[in-house]
Amino acid sequence: MIFCPLFSGSSGNSVFVSDGNTRLLIDAGVAGKNIERELTNIGENPSEIDGIFVTHEHIDHIKSVGVLSRKHNIPIYANELTWNAMESKLGKLKMENIKLLDKKYIDIKDMTIENFKIHHDAVDPRGYAFRSKNKVAAVATDLGHFSEEVKNVLKDADVFLLESNHDIEMLKFGPYPYVLKKRILSDIGHLSNEACGNAILDILGDNLKNIYLGHLSKTNNYPQLAYETVISVLKENKVQIGTDVSITMANRDKHSDVICV
Ligand SMILES: [Zn+2]
Ligand SMILES: [Zn+2]
């Protein structure tokens, strides 16, 4: 499995995953030409993408979903409520590229894609897990609460992107209005650096987990702080960095390191 966050953060998100045969994007929340550029930079051809899986209808996840679908004839996968909420924002689409996710698992060639519920203030937000050749990759960002369901999926995953959105103190004392602070800190908001570290503790197992920290807030976080907060939670709990877990920061404006498992 080949996994690479192309863009990650409150300013726009897109992740590439492939088993060498099926090539997928999860979200397309920045300009289409930027996604094309970063795909090319990791040696992938945008016209070979087999599908875009949409997590939820927020603009930092859907900005160029319609554009890319039209240009490269890419099917778009989302559940019914998400389709209802986003379709008018995507522009005209070919009927055949509107794919409704109405069950938990679907197969595309040799890959099985599972969607799972995440807690966030969108109509029906989802995370995704991708299984092929006994390997599992997953995406879980935009979640206010690390539920049992998310935990069970990530326990199995060899590589995944997890949200490390904000530093709680920076958020509390930062410039956001009270209502927005309350939303972000709520059960359907975003995962803090500390909550992210604790979530990782919950899902470690026998095999090395390759974890990207992503969806960082531009205002209430910075990469080094997210990294150090998560690492200190792990070290306090005797987790061996590099043996039990490998932590990589997902870049905001360009592709991150590609990880193959
Ligand atoms: Zn969101
Ligand atoms: Zn988001």
TrEMBL record:
Coiled coil spans: none
UniProt xrefs under InterPro entries: Metallo-B-lactamas, RibonucZ/Hydroxyglut_hydro, WalJ/YycJ-like
Keyword rRNA-binding among record annotations: no
The entry's keywords: Hydrolase
GO molecular function: hydrolase activity
Annotated Metallo-beta-lactamase domain residues: 11-215
Entry protein name: MBL fold metallo-hydrolase
